[in-house]
Amino acid sequence: MEKITVWTKQHKAVLETLEREGRYVAKRQFVEYENEDCAPLVLEVYDWLVKNGPNASQKPQDADYPVWVSFSREGTYLPQEHSVMLELSLDPKLITPIHVAKWGMILNYSYIPKDIEDAKRHQKLLQDYHTSDTQAYMSRFYPEIKREIIASWDRLFDDNIEVNSNQKYGTIWEIRKEWITNVIR
User: Helix, strand, or coil here: 99?
Assistant: First the structure.
């Protein structure tokens, strides 16, 4: 089986967990800590990702969320005081590719259009209701628009739907110590 190299920036406590236990899975409290005041908003879309991702069936029972990886070292931010960059070698089947621009749209509670005409139709809908995607999503006054926004998020995994660039990150359900080929501090 051919392996690929990916990189992930993690808090140094993750490396300590890997050295001690041989395995790391992302827990809800870590995502809450990392995102501080924005945590409830971020966790809402992470919960959607966990339930709707194509590799959802591979999720270990003890993992709350996936771990993000980059397909290029440059795509991983430089380590900071309390972080490390882990270089991993693993089976590509373990990775769920995530389109960066589409994921950004989801983080902003935006609609992912299937094409230009669909984008125009959706924009007209928002104009007719004098609202935005974010307002419609956050408010209880636009349940139909909110359902449409959430339904569009399935396009995250459709490579035929193009949005801006084709840059992708990936997610994996766990990091295993034996996958680490380099630690950059």
Answer: strand
Q: Which residue has the higher pLDDT, 75 or 163?
A: 163
CA dist 106 and 49 (Å) reads: 10
- Measuring CA to CA, how many Å separate 173 from each of 33, 60, 165? 19, 7, 25
Query: If phi over 0 gives left and psi between -120 and 50 gives alpha, with beta otherwise, what is residue 109?
Result: left
What does the block give as tokens for 46? 């992470």
82 contacts 33 by C-beta, under 8 angstroms: no
Span 9-24, pLDDT tens digits: 999 999 999 999 999 9
Q: Which residue has the tokens 């945590």?
A: 39
- Reported CATH class of domain 4-109+165-184: alpha beta
Confidence of residue 79 (pLDDT cuts 50, 70, 90): low
Sign of dihedral through CA atoms 90, 100, 138, 119? negative
Which two structure tokens, joined as six digits, stand for 12? 């140094």
* Whether 62 contacts 98, CB under 8 Å: no
Q: Where are the domains of the chain?
A: 4-109+165-184
